[in-house]
Design a protein that fits this description.
CATH class: Mainly Alpha
CATH superfamily: ADP-ribosylation/Crystallin J1
CATH topology: ADP-ribosylglycohydrolase fold
Helix content: 55-70%
Strand content: under 5%
Radius of gyration: 16 Å
CATH architecture: Orthogonal Bundle
Number of strands: 0
Number of domains: 1
Largest sheet: none
Distance between the termini: 10 Å
Length: 260
């Protein structure tokens, strides 16, 4: 789960200032967690303690109201009677990575990913994006190689994962849809040589950088961990130093319950 959060923090300063290179400082003074982290931690909390996804996500969203949520999600947070709003946005995919770590079968992962998504993102593309991201984490965690992940996610969800970051980068633009960002985040992971490179590749696309890096980072962490490679310690230190204590408590408890 820390891989997703690291991607969010690293990508945060480039969300509105896109870059088209992998050569950038990983951390700046303004690097911070955003809504991607808040909601990822909320999903992890709900899994750990058996909470209702909608209730726990609303609790975290209201506790951290200035994390950069989209307008429709803000209205959902503020509503006394929130209903899903048929979103196809990538918010469903950015928060789902704990599902890929916590559940034991493909069917369970797909079911739980749907449950995390449909409280807000009940459009078919919103659900599909969450399921694709969670399943990619699960496959990476359980030892699938990159070509297996490419084939399984591409075949199951109809995403074109045969492209490369180099092909995408020149023309790729800011896109908050699942269908326009989840495949690209997956490609950043597939093209990368390790965790740090996956995050750099995602940010270098120049789009919704924190969310692209959040999704790519989650998958890359799982993939590298199965092969005995942890997120580099300097990255872990920098990320943890930017998180509040309640987040660190959930992250640490989650890693204890669901070790990589």
């Amino acid at each position: 789960m820390l891989g997703a959060i690291a991607g969010d923090v690293i990508g945060s300063v480039y969300e509105r200032h896109p870059i088209k290179t992998t050569a950038f400082p990983l951390f700046r003074s303004r690097s911070r967690f955003t809504d991607d982290t808040v909601l990822t931690v909320a999903v992890a909390d709900a899994i750990l303690y058996g909470g209702d996804y909608a209730t726990v996500i609303r609790t975290y969203g209201r506790r951290y109201p200035r994390a950069g949520y989209g307008g429709l999600f803000q209205r959902w947070l503020a509503s006394d009677h929130p209903e899903p709003y048929n979103s196809w946005g990538n918010g469903s995919a950015m928060r789902v990575s704990p599902v890929g770590y916590a559940f034991a079968t493909v069917d369970e992962v797909l079911r739980e990913a749907r449950r995390t998504a449909e409280i807000t993102h009940n459009h078919p593309e919103g659900i599909k994006g969450a399921q694709a991201a969670a399943l990619a984490v699960f496959l990476a965690r359980t030892g699938a190689d990159k070509e297996t992940i490419r084939a399984e996610i591409g075949g199951r969800f109809g995403y074109d994962l045969q492209r490369t970051v180099a092909q995408l980068r020149p023309t790729y633009a800011f896109d908050v849809s699942c269908q326009g960002s989840v495949p690209e985040a997956l490609i950043a992971f597939l093209d990368a040589v390790d965790f740090e490179d996956a995050v750099r590749q995602a940010v270098s696309l120049g789009g919704d950088s924190d969310t692209l890096a959040c999704i790519a980072g989650a998958i890359a962490e799982a993939h590298d961990a199965h092969r005995g490679r942890a997120i580099p310690a300097p990255i872990v230190r920098q990320v943890r130093s930017r998180l509040p204590e309640d987040f660190l408590h959930i992250i640490d408890h989650f890693h204890q319950r669901y070790p990589l």
